[in-house]
Amino acid sequence: MRHRLRTRLMSLWEYIEDRWDLIVFEAVQHAAMVAQCVLVAALLGVLAGVLTYRRPKVANLATASAGVLFTVPSLAMLGLLIPLLGLGVAPSVTAIVLYALLPIVRNTVVGLQSVDPMLVDAARGLGMSRRRALTRVELPLAWPVILTGIRVATQLSMGIGAVAAYVSGPGLGEQIFSGLARLGGANAVNSTLTGTIGVAILALAFDACFVLLGRLTTTRERQAAGGARG
Amino acid sequence: MADRPTGGVPIELRKVTKAFPGGEAPAVQELDLHIPAGEIVVLLGPSGCGKTTTMRMINRLIEPTSGDILIGGQNSRDIDPDRLRRHIGYVIQQAGLFPHMTVAANIAQVPRMLGWDKRRIAERVTELLTLVGLEPDTFRDSFPRRLSGGQQQRVGVARALAADPPVLLMDEPFGALDPISRERLQDELLRLQDDLAKTIVFVTHDVDEALKIGDHIAIMQRPGHVVQYARPAEILTNPASEYVEQFLGAGSSMRLLRLTKVGDIELDQVPYASEDADAHELLHEVERDGRGYALITDGMRRPLRWIALADLHGRIGRVGTVGDPVTASIGHRMTLQDALEALLNADTDIVPVVGRRQAYAGALSLGTVQSAIQSIKAHERERRLRRGDAT
Q1: CB neighbour list of residue B48: distance below 8 Å, 6 or more residues apart
Q2: Residues of B in contact with A119 (CB under 8 A)
Q3: Nearest to residue A198, comparing CAs of A179, A182, A211?
Q4: Which of B267, B250, B289, B288 is nearest to B375 (CA)?
């Protein structure tokens, strides 16, 4: 048993060593794709949240439609996108952005709605315009919740990014799918394992970035606030 | 800032009506109210009577359906609402401080919007913290969460005063505080107002708070109209309707006691003399007075001892140190209520009243308090009649 595990690991290591450059390339592609998709989804999602949170019905509609998209299995979604967008980057990016939207929109709406109305009243009463109250009071107070949404969206995108190889999308999914296609053949398991572990490592790294970002943005908030005494 | 604070401007509400969509009766109905410059006007009434709506229409957080509001002679409709609000201080219940900003940043919000430079803002923050009784170095960089309710509300007041607005709106500012902090903040608001002379519109449902704080009180009734607008003493002595009477509750005389300062009523004048005075002369004076006792004071006219007629009989030369020491005294700035408390606790029926530097200013007994209340009521009645004739 132990012997077999050792040979397994040995062969995995050899596989990785042989294709190191390709794997790194695919990992970078994967990370870049996820990062860009989440960025786009964050911009769109926060915007959608900001535009709708004051009108509960519209906000519900926005979250509900994002929720409906969410229930479509990712493989089916990618498949459905092929006739529209063909193969490659376009359907992959579209699918990831669509999936990433839900947690971001929902958390933006929830975060903004949970800001104490008294504080918004105080902000308006001091003479802040709607926009200023939003950027100085509401968004900063909702930020931790929004950031959590973006974080969840990132984790989600990691997994969907891997499935995107199904439509010839870029990234580590290629390793997984080619392995699964050749199951039983030489290096099939090694290939799948490499892809899976790679995605997991990337996901952990991104999550660490979010922890750091959360800490940085809350401290920066305090620094900015402290700057008032200037 | 060395320049004098901006004093208040008058506010005029003319036939102001607010009807909310879907509501049956308007929340505020054709309300006319003149708020004099530099006064504290309290809008008093039960919840739902439209007092908060009325206040929020002044800074246009709520837009009136019809009618005009003039602030310092200028129609508020002609001013951009955001700009208008920057020149009207706004204090709400529980202070409403921004939890993600320091105390200094909270206070700096309006000056920043007005484009003050950083140094001026920093100086102003220090000045305001001192004004509201918070040590600037301790509190400047604190976050609101670390402050007690009373301290938070002090910051709330400082934030409202930041750009030195002529008008201050206060919406039940002390409603969430414990009785002791509330009392203290009320006292400090009155002290501040002595210097600042802002026009303050103060919303509360607490009768005692209204009587204590208000120069004028507007008692409001559902739906949205004023049933009586008068000075506190007049409201107590002459409630305009049964509704006002009910709302004030029992104890209008007790409340008059709370409103009146000892120094404002006519005190008993007991013969007094220093220790060095001639006993024989004092005896004559006491006999003429008819009360049968006198007060002995020291060189600064501070009360020392009560002396009875018997102590003086047959005494020649200096009065000296005979008599019973004075155990209690009443300050002339005390309310009659506190004075009454002191009287009830005193060993003697009559207690000396001391003014500045503890100097004797008169004396107080239960009878004096009683006749004082009666004369206040009579005085208010007379004033009313006179005014009734005039109109």
Answers
A1: B222
A2: 96, 98-99
A3: A179
A4: B267
From B90, B94, B113, residue closest to A125, measured CB to CB = B90
Determine whether the interchain pair B96/A118 forms a contact, defined as Cβ–Cβ distance below 8 Å.
Answer: yes
Nearest to B85 among A119, A126, A225 (CB): A126
- Residue A71 pLDDT level (bands cut at 50, 70, 90): confident
Residues A164, A167, A171: CA angle, nearest 5 degrees: 40
pLDDT digits 0-9 by tens, B188-208: 998 888 888 999 999 999 998
Cα separation, A218 vs A222, whole angstroms: 6
Smallest CA–CA distance, residue B60 to chain A, in Å, is 9
Short-list B195, B208, B203, CA closest to B170: B203
Q: Which residue has the tokens 């009454």?
A: B340
Torsion sign across C-alpha atoms B231, B233, B238, B240: positive
Query: Which of B59, B97, B101 is opposite residue A125, by nearest beta carbon?
Result: B59
Longest alpha-carbon distance in chain B: 88
Q: Nearest-CA neighbor of B212 among B238, B245, B182, B242? A: B182
Q: Among all residues of chain A, which has the CA nearest to that of B97?
A: A119
Interface list for chain B against chain A, based on CB atoms closer than 8 Å: 59, 61, 82-87, 90, 92-94, 96-102, 104-105, 108-110, 112-113, 118-119, 121-122, 125, 140-141, 143, 159, 169
Closest B-chain CA to A227 = B105
Check whether B39 has a pLDDT greater than 80. yes
Torsions phi, psi of B94, nearest 5? Answer: 60, 20
CA geometry: angle B29, B35, B36, nearest 5 deg: 160
Of residues B375, B366, B380, B377, the one with CA closest to residue B268: B366
Amino acid at B109: Q
Query: Distance of alpha carbon B113 from its chain centroid, rounded?
Result: 32
- ipTM reported for the complex surpasses 0.85: no
What band does B92 get if pLDDT is binned at 50, 70 and 90?
A: very high
- Placement of tokens 């007994």 in the chain: B365
Cis geometry, peptide bond prior to residue B223 (ω within 30 degrees of 0): yes
> Which of helix, strand or coil describes residue B70?
strand
Chain-chain contact of A229 with B109 (C-beta, under 8 angstroms):
no
Q: Is the pLDDT of residue B55 over 80?
A: yes
Answer whether B268's CB lies under 8 Å from B365's CB. Answer: yes
Identify the structural domains of chain B with CATH numbers, from first to last: 11-259 (3.40.50.300), 272-370 (3.10.580.10)
When pLDDT is cut at 50, 70 and 90, the band that residue B8 belongs to is: confident
**DSSP assignment, residue B260?**
-
B384 C-beta neighbours (distance < 10 Å), count: 14
Residue A119: which of B98, B113, B121 has the nearest Cβ? B98
Ranges of beta strands (E only) in B53-196 are: 66-71, 74-75, 88-92, 167-171
What is the C-alpha separation between A111 and B274, in angstroms, rounded?
75
Question: Residue A161: its pLDDT value, please?
Answer: 87
